[in-house]
Amino acid sequence: MELIIQSGGAIVVIGMIIKLIITVISVTKLTRFERIFMTEYKKITIFLTEVITAILIISTSVTLIYSVTEDNPRLEQIAAFFLVVFIVLSVCLTVMYKLITIFVKQSFRFFFIDENETKLYIHKMLTETEVIVSEDSNYNDHSKNFRIIKREDIYRKNIEQE
């Protein structure tokens, strides 16, 4: 019976890892331009999927190495080891990501020329159908000069990168 439970658990874990890998591969193929037309919710979901996939793969690998090199480890020991590695990696990767985003800034911007010959920068999606744009290339939450336009209005424009 224990073998059946372990096999079932292994199948579930392998299935989850395969699903996460497929999701990460499809998401990493998105260009920066395609990512600009995503809501914050989708961006966060993608980021979490990528991070959790990496953490699961590394944790599983380290746990497998531990279980092979240790003399007859109990299932509880293996589960506890996996949990500890997973938590430590989660904290480390989160801190590393925050440090990288502080020091490495992306310096590209997308813009288009509207019907009034005004250069409008595309900043982010507000909802699935609305986009925040402004004449100023630097946008933050305290900006006052911005517009909200329909996403479809941008599709007819020639979008360029700066």
UniProtKB/TrEMBL annotation:
<keyword id="KW-1133">Transmembrane helix</keyword>
<protein>
    <submittedName>
        <fullName>Uncharacterized protein</fullName>
    </submittedName>
</protein>
<feature type="transmembrane region" description="Helical">
    <location>
        <begin position="6"/>
        <end position="25"/>
    </location>
</feature>
<keyword id="KW-0472">Membrane</keyword>
<feature type="transmembrane region" description="Helical">
    <location>
        <begin position="46"/>
        <end position="66"/>
    </location>
</feature>
<keyword id="KW-0812">Transmembrane</keyword>
<feature type="transmembrane region" description="Helical">
    <location>
        <begin position="78"/>
        <end position="100"/>
    </location>
</feature>
